Amino acid sequence: DKDTPESAIFHFPGGLKDFLANRIEGQEAVTKDAFSGRIEKKEGHGSVEWAIAWVAGEDGFISSYCNTVPTPDGGTHEAGLRSALTKGLRAYGELAGNKKVAQVTADDVLGTAAAMLSLFMREPEFQGQTKDRLSSAEAARIVEGAVRDAFDHWLTGNPTQANRLLEWVIDRSEER
Predict the structure, then answer these.
(1) Residue 97 class from Cβ within 10 Å (0-12 exposed, 13-18 middle, 19+ buried)?
(2) pTM over 0.70
(3) Contact (Cβ atoms closer than 8 angstroms) between residue 47 and residue 54
(4) How far apart are alpha carbons 52 and 20 in whole angstroms?
(5) How many helices and strands in the chain, by DSSP H and E?
(6) CA-CA-CA-CA torsion for 131, 68, 108, 111, nearest 10 degrees?
(7) Can you say how many angstroms the Cα of residue 119 is from the centroid of all Cα atoms in its chain?
């Protein structure tokens, strides 16, 4: 459509991974690759898609959605993401024999993370009429289950990046 300004068109063929790359373009990333993925729930009952990059020298952000509805105040799906990333990085650090990982908090892990999260689920429950916050308890379990397994595989499959991320997060916890 010629009447639509070009700046209003969003087209990211690679999904959230491409969208995130566009959002953080020009910023220094901690790891070479973003951690991203998409998992379809069994029997067509929804999906989870995510893209996360850790950015040096920048405050992090999480942009989350449920059934394409933006959730600027976060909610249970973001809690599931925080839990999956924190537990996964701690477990990786323990396997690597790094005792300092015990002091790492979710804020250390996500403080400089640029994250995008999209959840599709049946009958989501939101807090308030504006739907700014997802409150479905099931959302935390869905997201944590999807992301945790994939994150464990990403960490063990990319030891150079995983160790760089682990060192970065431990440095953040020591600064705290």
Answers:
(1) exposed
(2) yes
(3) no
(4) 8
(5) 5, 7
(6) -90
(7) 11
The pLDDT value given to residue 25:
94
- Helix (H) / strand (E) element for 79: namely helix 76-95
Q: What are 98's two structure tokens?
A: 């790094």
C-alpha distances out from residue 166 to 43, 53, 84, 143, 175, Å: 36, 13, 15, 22, 14
- Cα(124)–Cα(104) distance, rounded to whole angstroms? 31
Q: 69-112: per-residue pLDDT in tens?
A: 999 999 999 999 999 999 999 999 999 999 999 999 999 999 99
Helices 137-157 and 159-175: angle between axes, nearest 10 degrees: 120
Q: What is residue 9's predicted lDDT score, i.e. its pLDDT?
A: 55
Q: What residues contact 146, with CB distance under 8 A and at least 6 apart?
A: 37, 39, 48, 50, 84
